[in-house]
Amino acid sequence: xxxxxxxxxxxxxxxxxxxxxxxxxxxxxxxxxxxxxxxxxxxxxxxxxxxxxxxxxxxxxxxxxxxxxxxxxxxxxxxxxxxxxxxxxxxxxxxxxxxxxxxxxxxxxxxxxxxxxxxxxxxxxxxxxxxxxxxxxxxxxxxxxxxxxxxxxxxxxxxxxxxxxxxxxxxxxxxxxxxxxxxxxxxxxxxxxxxxxxxxxxxxxxxxxxxxxxxxxxxxxxxxxxxxxxxxxxxxxxxxxxxxxxxxxxxxxxxxxxxxxxxxxxxxxxxxxxxxxxxxxxxxxxxxxxxxxxxxxxxx
Length: 300
Known about the structure:
Distance between the termini: 41 Å
Mean pLDDT: 96
Structural class: alpha/beta
Order of helices and strands: EHHHHHHEHEEHHHHHHHHHH
Low-confidence stretches: none
Radius of gyration: 19 Å
Strand order of the largest sheet: 1-2-4-3
Strand content: 5-15%
């Protein structure tokens, strides 16, 4: 297993010394270029065909600080993610996460991984809803975290990376396609957050789960259950992220609170683990339908 750290902190430090017109090029070369294949697989253009067109920079701008915006006021945030200790801890979390599967006799098809940490934009409504941090690990071989570093987000970074590692493993074996439905998505998020909780404890699970109590979940659980067969990102997203994020993304609200589907998926997977006695490592490669069959008492 090879894990390559893309030290974004060094690129951010360079940005502060560069003229505005050079910053985007340097950021693309130093931070984004190693992830170019990930963006290609996600059908996200690396560079827009015309000025102002959609590309990876526009997508990242929805949640992250952009090269042209950095000033001396950002130096403290850059320094907060600049310690070798933080990067080595992050690498160790990724190694530990993947090693648990190898120790269980599961050979991972992907052997090389890239990861980086991006500085989030404190003014981003989506990042604010997520309490200042988020992750991206849906494409095997690539892991990213975004955060505004502070006393809340930094202690939760390792759990967030473990969450994304779980996605990375599951999607090496269970591929997503046009027939991927809401149930698949709920289960995948539930597995990922259950994995993070198993490694780092319930106290560090993300707000996408902790902000919803079991009592609150009972109020909208049936609304999600009856839409398991939905396909298509635009249709599924509101049931996973809730109305506030749906509106930010220009989608139709469906009457659900923040990250409703994440909380649903987490408690669904917790029910599966309790009902079957399986470990989270074993559950990670279990097909959605099998998990649903063992948890009818939860979702029906």
